[in-house]
Design goal:
This protein is about 30% helix and about 25% strand. It is of the alpha+beta class. The protein is globular. It holds the Pfam family CP_ATPgrasp_2.
Length: about 475
């Protein structure tokens, strides 16, 4: 071995490691292992700093939860050790995601129209009509092409055996698309000798798939519909992503104040006059979409938007009311939805989940809080969680009180042994927990699954929280051709 080079140690672990199988390197990681072993600590550190500097230069940022005003915005920590998924493994994931998105879309169409799944007793009616994301305004409303979920982000985890499980569904305004493309761009530019040593499936055409899915929703039948991306503005945590997607897909980036409703149509205010809008890709929550329909104090939406939507003059992606399907309590019923609507067996299993609204399940969990991850059903981004194995007794007691006071608001899952991957920390390789957010685009006829998705990394040693808003990082994800 050359002077100054350091071999990469195989970390002893009870978790499934993406790169190592016991003491051996998994075959699809051999070239990565060889490259890392051939680099000194200083070389790895310099390479990591170079890539993170590029993120800073390009303004690829996210807003941290609970940070001071000065430290509120920061770059996403990027790790240059890729996550690699063999083709046969990806094939199962892809089919499972397609199946899940089709079932979730069918569920939304059902509960806003005939409600057959409720009448047949598969899901308790109160869990739907009492859900904070169920929108009575959407009842009997014909959405363009029957598409409720244009863009979905499905989070997957692996257990200690390496089996994949769906952790949660993100169907309202899933974020993370931009980090996939930027991660890939950085790896190609700054580590080409590694990237081009593999046959990796490309992701560039998926932006065109995204644009086509939005275009398909246009109610006017125009060959070149006007599509806008509605953002809350530059103070939003994912504003970089909004600008990136608008630029890459050729959409007009607008805020609510840029739009106006006239005669049940939506227009962009331009210096030259008004320009009619056909499709709105919204990145703001339902509550703020239209002050006449939802929160009257909203300054982010467009007064009259829901009327224009009801008249069929504009499409909204994702449709209002989709949040009821990504509620963490409703998540427990998705395998039943797949059987009910598609007459198929679920390809990807849920993580075992306990509903706190069920007395026997609630008591079972309360007796084992130190072994559980408890989540508030309506929250995402790592908020409203108790991670039992790393919690204090005081935290568990406080959470137990919350559960008893509002059992319908919580679910619990056993703390999984999430898979790990090597990451570079100060030039050294260390083990960190990861998950995978897979993005799917539905155009009404087929589901397009973006090959790879976003691997999120819990940068803190031992942490199971990978969310960007909680300090998590990301990796480039390679699906082998």
């Amino acid at each position: 071995m050359e002077s100054g080079k350091q071999s990469v140690a195989v970390p002893p672990s009870s978790f499934y490691n993406e790169m190592y199988d016991g003491g051996a390197v998994r075959p699809h990681y051999e070239r990565v292992h060889r490259q890392l072993s051939g680099m000194s600590r200083e070389e790895r550190l310099n390479r990591q700093q170079l890539m993170n500097s590029r993120l800073l230069e390009e303004g690829i940022t996210f807003t941290l939860s609970g940070a001071s005003r000065e430290a509120l915005e920061r770059t996403i920590p990027f790790d240059f050790v890729p996550r690699i998924i063999p083709a046969e493994e990806w094939s199962v994931i892809e089919k499972g995601i397609e199946q899940r998105v089709r079932a979730l879309n069918a569920f939304l169409a059902d509960i806003y129209h005939e409600q057959c799944i409720l009448k047949d007793g598969l899901i308790p009616r109160r869990m739907i009509v009492g859900n904070r994301y169920f929108r009575t305004e959407m009842m009997k409303l014909a959405v363009p092409k029957g598409v409720y979920v244009t863009a979905a982000g499905i989070d997957l985890v692996r257990d200690e055996k390496g089996d994949y499980y769906v952790l949660e569904d993100n169907l309202r305004t899933p974020s993370g698309f931009s980090y996939i493309y930027k991660s890939r761009s950085i790896m190609k530019h700054d580590f080409p000798e590694l990237f081009f040593s593999y046959k990796v499936r490309g992701i560039d055409r998926t932006l065109q798939d995204f644009h086509n899915a939005l275009k398909e929703l246009a109610p006017s039948g125009r060959s070149e519909p006007v599509i806008v991306l509605l953002t809350p503005g530059s103070y939003n945590s994912a504003y970089f992503e909004h600008t990136f997607l608008a630029q890459q897909m050729g959409l007009e980036l607008v805020e609510g104040r840029d739009l106006v409703c006239r005669d049940h149509h939506i227009y962009i205010r331009h210096m030259s006059g008004l320009k009619k809008v056909d499709v709105i890709y919204r990145r703001i929550d339902d509550d703020f979409l239209d002050p006449l329909a939802f929160r009257p104090d909203s300054l982010l939406g467009v007064a009259g938007l829901m009327n224009a939507y009801r008249f069929g003059n504009v499409a909204i992606a994702n449709a209002p009311g989709t949040g009821v399907a990504d509620d963490k309590a409703i998540y427990t019923f998705v395998p039943e939805m797949i059987r009910y609507y598609l007459n198929e067996r679920p390809i990807l299993n849920n993580v075992p989940t306990y509903l706190m609204s069920r007395p026997e399940e609630r008591e079972y969990v309360l007796e084992r809080l130190e072994q559980m991850v408890v989540k508030e059903t309506s929250l995402s981004g790592g908020y409203g969680m108790l991670v039992g194995p790393t919690s204090t007794e005081e935290e568990r007691m406080a959470f137990a009180e919350k559960i008893r006071a509002n059992p319908d608001h919580y679910i619990a899952q056993p703390a999984l042994k999430l898979s790990t991957s090597p990451v570079v920390i100060d030039g050294e390789l260390e083990e960190r927990h990861i998950d995978l957010r897979v993005f799917a685009l539905y155009d009404g006829s087929r589901v397009h699954v973006l090959p790879g998705g976003l691997t999120r990394v819990a940068m803190k040693a031992g942490s199971l929280v990978v969310n960007s808003s909680q300090g998590g990082g990301c990796k480039d994800t390679w699906v082998l051709a």
